[in-house]
Design brief:
This protein has 278 residues and is an all-alpha fold. It has nine helices and no strands.
Length: 278
């Protein structure tokens, strides 16, 4: 019998990933990310082309506006309403401990809503509800070969399916943003009055709102409204593998849409503050 030496007592497990495998995995993911970006840009280009040269389907656009806008109102109202109450309670509690002056609570909160929370949180909620719905609908059509039937009928899927969702989202997301800001600000005003006895006239002060706040909030809302349907529809049209593929597409849609919203928030805010500093 041979006795194992100290180097053989704990041999390294087979298949342990090394640096080469790690770098290869990073490279594959980078290539996949580049492919996704390229395909989404191509889908955006096709959508813009058919939006100009394609048929006008007002009925489908109105249907998608109702689905994206009206059916998201309760979700957005509850989410932004509670966020408004939480933010005002926390900010008021800290301000009361440090300075005791709550006069600027309302104006600063309204400015924050216009710049950041209003458009961004609204877009994340639309991505969660509307983006998954778009991916699931188009993915189901791919699995059931309805997309192939559209092509055989000389109807372009992008023109028939993506363009109405694109236009509806571009219109409804700014509308939902304004609605969410109003709900959140109203909830914050009630919280400030009940928790800290702040007068409603003191809280509702638009003196801090500048044209920059309105412009950057509007640009964000429009940008989110353009990006979410492209990313979600791409996830749906790329489905493969039956019903399991539809499930993966809905997960991919909400993750990619949320990441796109966060990235655009950072990008637009950075560009806006650079221009403001000039």
């Amino acid at each position: 019998m041979t006795r194992d030496g100290p180097d053989n007592e704990h041999p390294p497990p087979r298949g342990t990933p090394g640096w080469g495998q790690f770098i290869g995995d990073v490279g594959r993911r980078a290539l996949e990310f580049g492919r996704l970006v390229r395909e989404n840009v191509e889908l955006l280009g096709l959508t813009l082309r058919y939006m100009v040269n394609g048929r006008r389907r007002r009925g489908r656009i109105a249907e998608q506006m109702y689905d994206i806008g009206n059916r998201s109102m309760l979700f957005i109202a509850v989410t932004l309403g509670f966020l408004g109450m939480i933010l005002i309670f926390q900010a008021g509690y800290q301000a009361e401990r440090i300075t005791g002056d709550l006069q600027m609570l309302g104006p600063l909160f309204l400015q924050l809503l216009f710049r950041e929370f209003g458009p961004t949180i609204t877009a994340l909620m639309v991505a969660t509800r509307g983006g998954t719905g778009m991916a699931a609908q188009l993915g189901t059509m791919v699995v059931t070969e309805q997309i192939d039937a559209l092509r055989m009928s000389a109807a372009q899927p992008v023109d028939y399916l993506v363009v109405p969702r694109f236009l509806a989202s571009a219109v409804m997301l700014p509308v939902l943003t304004v609605f969410g800001i109003l709900v959140s600000f109203a909830a914050g005003a009630v919280t400030a009055n009940l928790a800290f006895n702040v007068n409603y006239y003191t809280f509702v002060d638009i003196g801090m709102i500048e044209s920059f706040d309105i412009v950057i909030g509007s640009v964000k809302a429009i940008a989110y409204g353009l990006v979410i349907p492209i990313v979600a529809c791409h996830a749906g049209l790329s489905v493969s593998g039956g019903s399991a593929g539809v499930g993966r597409a809905t997960t991919d849609a909400v993750v990619r849409c949320s990441l796109s919203v966060v990235f655009l928030d950072f990008l637009i805010s950075g560009i806006g503050y650079v221009f403001m500093a000039l």
